[in-house]
Write a structure and sequence with these properties.
Blueprint (H helix, E strand, L loop, with lengths): L1 H16 L4 H12 L16 H4 L7 H6 L11 E4 L10 H15 L3 E3 L13 E3 L6 E3 L1 H4 L12 E4 L1
Parallel strand pairs: 1-2, 1-5
Antiparallel strand pairs: 3-4
Helix pairs in contact: 1-2
Protein backbone atom coordinates (compact mmCIF):
# COMPACT_ATOMS: atom_id res chain seq x y z
CA UNK A 1 0.00 0.00 0.00
CA UNK A 2 2.88 2.35 0.81
CA UNK A 3 4.29 1.88 -2.70
CA UNK A 4 0.89 2.49 -4.29
CA UNK A 5 0.48 5.73 -2.34
CA UNK A 6 3.98 6.85 -3.36
CA UNK A 7 3.19 6.05 -6.98
CA UNK A 8 -0.02 8.14 -6.91
CA UNK A 9 1.79 11.00 -5.20
CA UNK A 10 4.46 10.92 -7.89
CA UNK A 11 1.80 10.92 -10.62
CA UNK A 12 0.17 13.95 -8.99
CA UNK A 13 3.55 15.71 -8.77
CA UNK A 14 4.36 15.03 -12.40
CA UNK A 15 0.90 16.09 -13.60
CA UNK A 16 1.41 19.49 -12.00
CA UNK A 17 5.05 19.94 -12.99
CA UNK A 18 4.42 21.06 -16.57
CA UNK A 19 2.65 24.24 -15.46
CA UNK A 20 5.01 25.32 -12.67
CA UNK A 21 7.58 28.07 -12.72
CA UNK A 22 11.24 27.04 -12.33
CA UNK A 23 11.41 27.57 -8.53
CA UNK A 24 8.23 25.61 -7.86
CA UNK A 25 9.38 22.84 -10.24
CA UNK A 26 12.71 22.60 -8.41
CA UNK A 27 10.88 22.25 -5.07
CA UNK A 28 8.56 19.64 -6.55
CA UNK A 29 11.50 17.73 -8.00
CA UNK A 30 13.23 17.74 -4.59
CA UNK A 31 10.07 16.29 -3.00
CA UNK A 32 9.83 13.63 -5.70
CA UNK A 33 13.46 12.64 -5.06
CA UNK A 34 12.51 11.87 -1.47
CA UNK A 35 10.33 9.08 -2.87
CA UNK A 36 13.34 7.51 -4.62
CA UNK A 37 14.02 4.97 -1.82
CA UNK A 38 10.60 3.45 -2.55
CA UNK A 39 11.47 2.96 -6.22
CA UNK A 40 12.74 -0.33 -7.60
CA UNK A 41 14.86 0.15 -10.74
CA UNK A 42 13.78 -1.71 -13.86
CA UNK A 43 15.59 -4.95 -14.47
CA UNK A 44 16.71 -6.13 -17.90
CA UNK A 45 13.94 -6.41 -20.50
CA UNK A 46 12.00 -9.66 -20.55
CA UNK A 47 10.93 -11.52 -23.70
CA UNK A 48 8.20 -9.53 -25.45
CA UNK A 49 9.00 -6.24 -23.66
CA UNK A 50 9.26 -3.11 -25.80
CA UNK A 51 12.80 -2.43 -24.59
CA UNK A 52 13.94 -5.90 -25.65
CA UNK A 53 13.66 -4.78 -29.28
CA UNK A 54 13.88 -0.98 -28.97
CA UNK A 55 16.80 0.63 -27.16
CA UNK A 56 15.79 3.85 -25.40
CA UNK A 57 17.95 6.16 -23.32
CA UNK A 58 15.17 7.23 -20.95
CA UNK A 59 14.22 10.75 -19.98
CA UNK A 60 15.10 12.99 -17.06
CA UNK A 61 12.58 15.11 -15.18
CA UNK A 62 14.05 18.26 -16.78
CA UNK A 63 13.82 16.74 -20.28
CA UNK A 64 10.23 15.71 -19.69
CA UNK A 65 9.33 19.15 -18.38
CA UNK A 66 10.90 20.88 -21.41
CA UNK A 67 9.12 18.64 -23.95
CA UNK A 68 6.14 20.04 -25.89
CA UNK A 69 2.69 19.20 -24.53
CA UNK A 70 -0.79 18.74 -25.85
CA UNK A 71 -2.70 20.81 -23.30
CA UNK A 72 -6.32 21.97 -23.12
CA UNK A 73 -7.08 25.40 -24.53
CA UNK A 74 -10.17 27.58 -24.53
CA UNK A 75 -11.15 25.98 -27.85
CA UNK A 76 -10.19 22.38 -27.02
CA UNK A 77 -11.62 21.32 -23.64
CA UNK A 78 -13.00 17.81 -24.26
CA UNK A 79 -11.10 14.53 -24.43
CA UNK A 80 -12.53 12.24 -27.12
CA UNK A 81 -11.92 8.54 -26.61
CA UNK A 82 -12.00 6.53 -29.83
CA UNK A 83 -12.58 2.77 -29.34
CA UNK A 84 -10.84 0.82 -32.10
CA UNK A 85 -12.99 -2.21 -32.76
CA UNK A 86 -15.85 -3.59 -30.68
CA UNK A 87 -15.40 -4.80 -27.11
CA UNK A 88 -17.18 -7.96 -26.02
CA UNK A 89 -19.46 -7.84 -22.95
CA UNK A 90 -16.71 -9.18 -20.70
CA UNK A 91 -14.44 -6.23 -21.59
CA UNK A 92 -16.94 -3.41 -22.15
CA UNK A 93 -16.38 -2.18 -18.59
CA UNK A 94 -12.82 -1.23 -19.61
CA UNK A 95 -14.13 1.51 -21.88
CA UNK A 96 -16.45 2.92 -19.20
CA UNK A 97 -13.68 2.78 -16.60
CA UNK A 98 -11.27 4.51 -18.99
CA UNK A 99 -13.77 7.33 -19.63
CA UNK A 100 -14.26 7.78 -15.86
CA UNK A 101 -10.50 7.73 -15.16
CA UNK A 102 -9.63 10.21 -17.92
CA UNK A 103 -12.30 12.64 -16.74
CA UNK A 104 -11.22 12.42 -13.10
CA UNK A 105 -7.48 12.61 -13.80
CA UNK A 106 -7.51 15.43 -16.35
CA UNK A 107 -10.55 17.24 -14.88
CA UNK A 108 -12.05 17.58 -18.34
CA UNK A 109 -15.21 16.25 -19.96
CA UNK A 110 -14.71 13.01 -21.91
CA UNK A 111 -16.74 12.11 -25.00
CA UNK A 112 -16.86 8.49 -26.11
CA UNK A 113 -16.76 8.37 -29.91
CA UNK A 114 -18.61 5.65 -31.85
CA UNK A 115 -16.63 2.44 -32.31
CA UNK A 116 -14.31 2.64 -35.29
CA UNK A 117 -14.25 -0.74 -37.01
CA UNK A 118 -10.87 -0.98 -38.68
CA UNK A 119 -11.59 -4.43 -40.08
CA UNK A 120 -8.73 -6.84 -40.56
CA UNK A 121 -5.45 -4.97 -40.33
CA UNK A 122 -3.28 -5.05 -43.44
CA UNK A 123 -0.06 -7.04 -43.10
CA UNK A 124 2.02 -3.89 -42.59
CA UNK A 125 -0.16 -2.92 -39.59
CA UNK A 126 0.03 -6.14 -37.59
CA UNK A 127 2.49 -8.49 -35.96
CA UNK A 128 2.45 -11.58 -33.78
CA UNK A 129 3.76 -10.96 -30.28
CA UNK A 130 6.64 -13.43 -29.87
CA UNK A 131 5.92 -13.97 -26.16
CA UNK A 132 2.12 -14.38 -26.25
CA UNK A 133 1.72 -15.56 -29.88
CA UNK A 134 -1.27 -13.21 -30.17
CA UNK A 135 -1.88 -10.84 -33.07
CA UNK A 136 -1.21 -7.16 -32.28
CA UNK A 137 -1.85 -3.95 -34.17
CA UNK A 138 1.27 -1.97 -35.02
CA UNK A 139 0.62 1.68 -34.25
CA UNK A 140 3.06 2.84 -36.92
CA UNK A 141 0.89 1.14 -39.54
CA UNK A 142 -2.59 1.74 -38.16
CA UNK A 143 -2.78 5.19 -36.58
CA UNK A 144 -3.19 6.83 -39.95
CA UNK A 145 -6.57 5.07 -40.15
CA UNK A 146 -7.71 7.11 -37.15
CA UNK A 147 -6.72 10.57 -38.36
CA UNK A 148 -9.95 11.33 -40.26
CA UNK A 149 -12.02 10.75 -37.09
CA UNK A 150 -10.36 13.45 -34.96
CA UNK A 151 -12.97 16.16 -34.32
CA UNK A 152 -11.77 19.62 -35.30
CA UNK A 153 -13.71 21.64 -32.74
CA UNK A 154 -13.34 22.07 -28.97
CA UNK A 155 -11.80 18.64 -28.40
CA UNK A 156 -8.60 16.89 -27.48
CA UNK A 157 -8.68 13.35 -28.77
CA UNK A 158 -6.89 10.13 -28.02
CA UNK A 159 -7.22 6.74 -29.65
Amino acid sequence: MRHLLACWLLIAFVAQAATLDDLAAARLHALALRLAPLHTPMGPPEPGDWLEAHEEAGQTFAQWRAAPRNVPTAKRRTICLQPLGAFDDARAFLVADTVAFLGAFFQLPVRLQPVLDLGEPPARARRVNPATRRMQWRTDGSCSSCAPTVPTTRSRCSA
